[in-house]
Amino acid sequence: MPWWVLGWDVVCWLGQRRFARHWSVGQLRTELADTYQIPLSHDAIDRSLRRYQQMLAARQREPQQLAAAYAAVDAVVLAIDGLQPEKGHETLSVVRELERKRVWCAEALLSRAAAAVQPLLGQAQRWAAGLGKPLRLWLSDKHEAFVRGIAAEFPGVPHRYGANHCLRDVAKPVLEADSRAKGQRRRKVRGVRLIERAV
Fold this sequence. Notes:
alpha/beta; five-stranded mixed β-sheet; 58% helix
């Protein structure tokens, strides 16, 4: 490409090894220098990896490519996830489609307030409408912004919570009963120790 230092082949080589094989930037730099006599700085590799990600994202969002990927799918299932950001730090929130296991869209958000999450859900709604496939289900955690945003943007679509949250809720009574049993057992064991000491 004009004004690029590297050719397409090297950019693709870097991206494949970084993201499929999980090579570090140091490994990439050493391999390029030792095997191919291409000396590159860490900055040049970082720039090339960002360009690779941009090209990959553009390819995955291309409408004809997306339509072909979902041609055999009857309905789509979407999930949104992200970590609660620390104060002042952006956290990546991601919408994934679970039938084809593709990331549809992502946004670095400073908060998970309803106003911040709504544009991400709106983008997912436009993708689903563009595919012309019915949306079968939404999955998320119980965060209020997700619950309200999905209800507003996708009325009538069932919304379920992730397996981790369900399993945690199912386990609560068992953990409470186990905790009570431990307390009773400790009291009995303490009584036995007093008898042993007396004997």
